[in-house]
Amino acid sequence: MAATCALVVDDERDLRENIAELLEMEGYAVRKARNGKEALEVAASEHPGIVLLDLMMPIMSGWEVVTAMRLDDELRRIPVIVISAHPAPPEGVTVISKPFQVEHLLQAVRDAVEEPRRA
After folding, report:
1. By the 8 A CB rule, do 70 and 91 touch?
2. Which residues are registered as beta bridge partners of 96?
3. What confidence tens digit (pLDDT) does each residue in 37-64 have?
4. Is 39 in contact with 11 (CB distance < 8 Å)?
5. What's the average model confidence in pLDDT over 62-81?
6. Which of 23-32, 83-92, 97-106 shows the lowest mean pLDDT across its residues?
7. What is the C-alpha to C-alpha distance for residues 53 and 50, in angstroms, rounded to an integer?
8. Contact 62, 9 (CB under 8 A)
9. Phi and psi for 13 in degrees, rounded to 5?
10. Got the DSSP string for 60-104?
11. Which of 20, 22, 41 is nearest to 31 (CA)?
12. Average pLDDT, the chain
């Protein structure tokens, strides 16, 4: 069975790389994107098992990504975890506040990947 693919989206390179490394150590295949536009392109081509998404990014924000994913028949099934310090994240997604505890993040990813996909 292939490893679940996780898409890590954050414009802060160090944070994006650190989260990717954590997930790889847990056995996930990881793809990365620097902004929302790249995230949607990767999600459409790779159909990851989960998206970890920052909200405040250039080019296309995390809010715009969540909205676009919800409007797409294929992408709406992908669980999204928002990782942000923003006080008002989108409704209906799991939120991990920055700064976060590693185990809290990993447990949220495990929980989201294990839930049945939304129709």
Report:
1. no
2. 83
3. 999 999 999 999 999 999 999 899 999 9
4. no
5. 94
6. 83-92
7. 10
8. yes
9. -55, -45
10. S-HHHHHHHHHHSTTGGGS-EEEEE--SSPPTTSEEEESS--HHH
11. 20
12. 91
